[in-house]
Design brief:
The chain has 176 residues and is mostly helical. The chain contains 7 helices and no strands.
Length: 176
Amino acid sequence: MVGLRAQTRPVMLAALAAPLVWYAGAGLSLRGPNPIAGHPPTMAEAQVEAEWLAAVETDMRARTGYNQTIVRQVIAGRVSLPQAAAALWDANRHDKHFRAILATHFPAATVESQMAANLLVRAGGLLANDPAKRAAVVRRLTDEYRRNYGNPSDQLLAMIDYDDETSADDEYAISR
């Protein structure tokens, strides 16, 4: 599992940093005077900035919680991979940084297959401490990915530490 954590760490860090990159790119400052505007912010500007940052943080927390719920639902088998991919995309499509990270880290033919790949990696990460359940879930989701989107890329298989030798006997782990 060390390989999985090392592979997903850049994706997770990029996802967490994206709102702050956007914040800085929008010409806003987290540290006082706004160097792009060339003057220290007025109290009114600081208030607008604080309100905007609070709204961004609220949105980010809500989407993060929702994204985790979707991943847990697909792990449990309560929703299909395509349903989960569509829900994840609907919740995050407005975030240009999410879209950029998706395209960079999960290259695939369609947005739906990118979202499904993202879900495979997230599911594997959540189950990193339960190798038997992780192996069974990753196998099931990889099979579902193949049925709906074609063969996963070698990059995706490496990211999820896919083991082609995983036995079908591991299916019991899903219900634990």
